[in-house]
Design a protein that fits this description.
330 residues, alpha/beta, Single alpha-helices involved in coiled-coils or other helix-helix interfaces, Rossmann fold, seven-stranded parallel β-sheet, 7 strands, globular, binds guanosine-5'-diphosphate
Length: 330
């Protein structure tokens, strides 16, 4: 048996140290680690949500302070109470750049952090958003093979991170606070288009009326945005993560969305298509990386300068860059 087989067995039996080692491999940028990580993932794939295992992948987004970690800690605890095993991952593109992470501190989820049925993993800091996303997708597969049947992927509205997370989950849940009237206009339109379920959080007793009103307005705005003939209308519900109010309703809508997916082309098909999209994204990322490699970088700069100076057309400049790229490969 190879070391990789051993590690795969350890992951499949849910051994924490094996899971941690597998994630370290997946996150490593060393070529030999990457090779071993890919062998490991290929071995684990049949036991993931892309194989035969029944899992749910949910993205959770919202601005810092909206109550994500409180919500996830409570929802995760409820799900564990129902017999699930819960993995929490994070995609935080700020962590690589600044050395600090908005989502990184796992003590934010006190109950899950100490539960045997939960695994909380801070965001990888693999540099580019593409790198972070790759490590997170691969970690998700490791967690699924280890028997975690609910994977929650947390993110904040930094740059493209929400789009990247939406591309790796079945259902995208957006947490927001009660807003009405003008402040509704300020919400990012894109995020509303991505969201499958919207929860107006912190709807505690004293704010309940305002939250209900905000939920109704948001629901109306969404219908306008998406048009009536769009099949899935994202439900807007109020909840309180802190007081464990309505989290069961939020979860019910997550499941309704899953059923809807099953009835409209299938969850499996969505996941397979996401894998194809992921492949394409990696090809794009790697082609772009080649443009910054030594030798090509200079040609890019020279070509762009020639365009700026009006000496070449953009088409000529693009060809010059691609010729240089071909030569660098040859
Ligand atoms: P995150 O930055 O989105 O992860 O937000 P946190 O979960 O750290 O919560 C930010 C603050 O809001 C903390 O002080 C929480 O105690 C508080 N909070 C979180 N959820 C609720 C809620 O449902 N109701 C109320 N009133 N406060 C909440």
């Amino acid at each position: 048996m190879t070391a990789t087989d051993d590690l795969a067995d350890g992951v499949r039996s849910g051994t924490r140290s094996a899971i941690a080692r597998a994630i370290t491999l997946v996150e490593s940028r060393r070529a030999d680690h990457q090779k071993q990580a890919q062998q490991l993932l290929a071995e684990l794939l049949p036991d993931t949500g892309n194989g035969t295992r029944s899992v749910q992948r949910i993205g959770i987004s919202g601005v810092p302070g909206v109550g994500k970690s409180t919500f996830i800690d409570q929802l995760g605890s409820n799900l564990i109470g129902d017999g699930h095993r819960v993995a929490v991952l994070a995609v935080d593109p700020s962590s690589g750049r600044t050395g600090g992470s908005i989502l990184g501190d796992k003590t934010r989820m006190g109950r899950l952090a100490i539960s045997d049925d939960a695994f909380v993993r801070p965001s990888p800091s693999a540099g580019t958003l593409g790198g972070v996303a790759k490590a997170t997708r691969e970690t998700m597969l490791v967690m699924e093979a280890a028997g975690y049947d609910v994977v929650l992927v947390e993110t904040v509205g930094v740059g493209q991170s929400e789009y990247v997370v939406a591309e790796m989950v079945d259902t995208f849940l957006f947490l927001t606070l009660a807003r009405t009237g003008d402040s509704l206009q300020g919400m990012k339109r894109g995020i509303l288009e991505l969201a499958d379920v919207i929860a107006v959080n912190k709807a505690d007793e004293e704010h309940e009326d305002g939250s209900e009103r905000a939920a109704r307005e948001l629901s109306g705005a969404l219908r306008l945005l998406r048009g009536a003939d769009d099949d899935w209308q994202a439900p807007v519900v109020t909840c309180s993560g802190l007081h464990n109010v309505n989290l069961d309703r939020v979860w019910k809508h997550v499941n309704r969305h899953r059923d809807w997916l099953d009835a409209h082309g299938g969850l499996e098909a969505k996941r397979r298509e996401q894998m194809v999209q992921w492949t394409r994204a990696m090809v794009r990322d790697r082609l772009l990386a080649r443009l910054t490699a030594a030798g090509v970088r200079e040609a890019v700069r020279a070509a762009e300068q020639a365009v700026r100076a009006g000496e070449q057309t953009p088409d000529q400049a693009a060809n010059a860059i691609l010729d240089q790229l071909d030569q660098a490969r040859g």
